[in-house]
Amino acid sequence: MSLGSLIAKARKDAGFSIEELAAKTNIRATVLREIEGDNFKNCGGETYARGHVRNIAAVLRADSQEFIRTYEEEQGEEVRSIQQLLVDNNVMREPTQERRVSWKVLVMISVISLTVVGLAQIIISNTNTTNVVIVAPTASTTPSESPTTSESPSSPATPTAQPSAQTSFSTGKGVEVRISAPRAKSWIYVSDTVGRTLFSGQLSLGAEMVFTSDTQLNLKVGNAGGVDLTVNGKKVPVIGANGAVVSVSYGVDS
User: TM spans, by residue (predicted)?
Assistant: First the structure.
């Protein structure tokens, strides 16, 4: 049975019509019909397609892992590693995966090597100049080439996210939602009450976006645990766990 057929059967077993499922998942009914027909071309790419499949599975109380496995078998155009799939959704790597050497580790190794070389040069220089009256700096080294112990390189600090400029999208002024990504990046989809898309894409780590509309804003967040929301000037609790796909709506009175 294809993934589209599995979804259609799960929907019917749950007693939902296409329109009812569309209202609960914030996925357009036309896109849902295409998904049940095994057509994922209008989902916005593989990442969004997987997000739709997980969202549908959650609403229908179906096995999301089985849905995703079937999607990969049927729709994957190329073989992708588990690591690439997990990174797309900000999920931790599985313990069995081969870990690549982090650039932080490489930088640390380089700094330690330079420190050891510098100390060795100082020791050798002190040994070679024993009982010699030094009247001027030797020509073999310069201050910039021979670091002293008090100025030895230190370990690099952990890089922090540099917030990008705030970006605003508006179709009115009645309701305002600020969404930021202080902990992890996330893909987001935002539309207003009449279905106009204000934004569809990735919210980078440290970035903030502001959305305003007349009566209602609908959000779908691909990594709910990594973002913070402020609605009409009031900060709201975290809307979900890391890696969770969550849909929320806010109005003028929220």
Answer: 101-124
pLDDT in tens, 29-71: 999 999 999 999 988 888 998 899 999 989 998 898 989 989 8
User: pTM of the entire structure?
Assistant: 0.37
Helix or strand (DSSP H, E) at 3: helix 3-14
Query: Are 227 and 254 spatial neighbours (Cβ–Cβ below 8 Å)?
Result: no
CB 172 within 8 A of CB 215: yes
> Where do we find the tokens 């019917």?
12
- Name the nearest CA neighbour of 85 among 103, 65, 101: 65
Alpha helices of the chain — where are they, by DSSP H? Answer: 3-14, 18-25, 29-36, 46-60, 64-75, 82-88, 103-128
Question: CB of 63 within 8 A of CB of 196?
Answer: no
Report CA torsion sign: 31, 35, 38, 42. Answer: positive
- Pair 186, 229: CB distance under 8 Å: no
